Amino acid sequence: MRLSELSGALAERFASIESAVPDSNRRNASVALVLRGPPGKADPPVRDCEVLVIRRSESPRDPWSGQMALPGGSVDEADDGLVATAVRETHEETGLRLDGRRDLLGRVETARPVGVRLPVITIWPFVFRVAPDSLARVGSAEVASVHWFRVRDLADAGNRGSYPWREGGLMRRFPCIEVEGRVIWGLTYRILTGFLELAGE
How many other β-carbons are positioned within 10 Å of the β-carbon of residue 8? Predict the structure, then answer.
């Protein structure tokens, strides 16, 4: 699939952007799945693009402390909708300015935490395209580092594994993606794998 085909494919698989309406029974948050194409290619295959991923800072107040994540956060009353939240949070966390009209390609399936100690929240992932020369940096104390991972590497079955997570006295293993020494699991894994299934078609 080429990048020019992605918007239509997202709408067909996950519904239109306009269908994203805040969940009235939960807190709401938005994240940005940002794609950066390779230099010199106007319409590259999606698998040749890169995805922006952050590593969250270690914090006892953050239920996802230290984990790899997509830039984003909770909806603010001042935000003009769910997309605006993803745009604002991405700029605050990574310094990358997104245009909600020009760069927005679509949305993927919402994600809801299932752990008993996790917030009761609905997370809305939106897909954006940025120019090949776009840069990101650590822009917030909530972010420890920023990374661009190739879609091809994220989709590679050889980079799939399981991540051990201990909570209390219980050890559980979760499916994960291991790339460039980083482990992506949990909600971010769920969001990315839904997208990667579509991008690989």
Answer: 12
Tokens describing residue 185: 């699991």
pLDDT tens for 7-57 read 999 999 999 999 999 988 889 999 999 999 999 998 999 999 999 999 999
Decide if domain 3-153 falls under CATH 3.90.79.10.
Answer: yes
Specify whether the CB–CB gap between 105 and 195 falls below 8 A: no
Helical pair 186-199 and 3-14, crossing angle rounded to 10 deg: 110
Question: CB–CB of 57/141 below 8 Å?
Answer: yes
Name the residue with tokens 């997104």.
98
Q: Residue 201's pLDDT is what? A: 65
Q: Which are the contacts of 140, defined by CB distance < 8 A and separation ≥ 6?
A: 92, 93
Strands in the chain per DSSP E: 27-36, 50-56, 68-69, 72-74, 104-107, 121-130, 143-150, 160-167, 170-179, 182-185
Which pair of structure tokens corresponds to residue 155?
Answer: 């989709």
Reduced to 3 states (helix: H, G, I; strand: E, B; else coil), residue 175 is strand
